[in-house]
Write a structure and sequence with these properties.
Elements: H1 2-16, H2 22-164, H3 170-201, H4 206-211, H5 215-246
Length: 247
């Protein structure tokens, strides 16, 4: 259609403007043909641009629709993946906790078994230690008892030797001291009894008072003389005790 119209236009224009020079006419026709081609190309370009714009808008619409669909699909897939990952994480966590619990129970069981085994193996050693400690305690007690017996025996032997030689022992000396103290207390008591008797004699004449107190000191001296052999009595008793032991 465009070629036919171009031919008509080309044919009409040269008919109106024919010149005597055919070269000029042909050049003009070529120029006009170029202009017609440019005009057609411009029109076709405008049509192509319009079609391309319509096609671009259509593609944009289709792209937006596809984007929405893909976004929904991606979001759904992401939600599915996230849910699956959360489920897997929960399952993994539960399995890990279960394994840790089982491992802890196994470790506790092994520790208990090792402790029981150690106690079982150590029991004979503990019994031996207790037995050794008991034997050591018995030996210590026996040693103490033997030492006490030896000390008592040595003390008795020394006492026997001292008594055989007539040497007073510590017990004899202590007894003698006690007897001396008792005798001194008795003497002091007698002195107290004698001193009150002098007071009523003071009312009598001096001659009578001088004569009567004279025998009283003799009584005190007699008591002192009697007390003196009592002090020596333990020595005699010790000698008498020694003689039967020697027999």
């Amino acid at each position: 259609m465009a070629t036919k119209k171009l031919k008509k236009k080309v044919q009409r224009k040269p008919a109106a403007r024919k010149t005597d020079n055919p070269v000029v006419d042909s050049a003009r026709e070529i120029w006009l043909a170029g202009l017609g081609a440019f005009s057609m190309a411009q029109k076709e370009g405008e049509k192509f641009i319009d079609e391309s714009n319509r096609l671009f808008d259509k593609l944009v619409k289709e792209g937006s629709k596809l984007e929405k669909r893909t976004r929904k699909d991606v979001e759904g897939a992401f939600d599915d993946i996230r849910g699956e990952m959360e489920t897997r994480v929960k399952d993994f966590r539960g399995e890990a906790e279960k394994r840790m619990k089982d491992l802890r129970g196994e470790v506790e069981t092994r520790v208990t078994d090792l402790r029981d085994d150690f106690e079982t193996r150590f029991e004979p050693v503990r019994k031996q230690r207790e037995e050794v400690e008991k034997q050591a305690e018995d030996v210590r007690k026996q040693a103490n008892e033997g030492w006490d017996k030896l000390e008592n025996l040595f003390r008795d032997r020394v006492a026997d030797v001292l008594t055989a030689l007539g040497i007073p022992t510590r017990d004899d000396i202590d007894g003698l001291n006690r007897r001396v103290q008792s005798l001194s207390r008795k003497v002091s008591a007698l002195d107290k009894k004698v001193t009150p008797a002098k007071k009523p004699a003071k009312a009598k004449p001096r001659t009578a008072a001088k004569r009567k107190p004279a025998p009283k000191p003799k009584a005190v001296k007699a008591v002192a003389k009697k007390a003196a052999p009592k002090k020596a009595a333990p020595k005699k008793a010790a000698v008498k005790k020694a003689t039967p032991k020697a027999a």
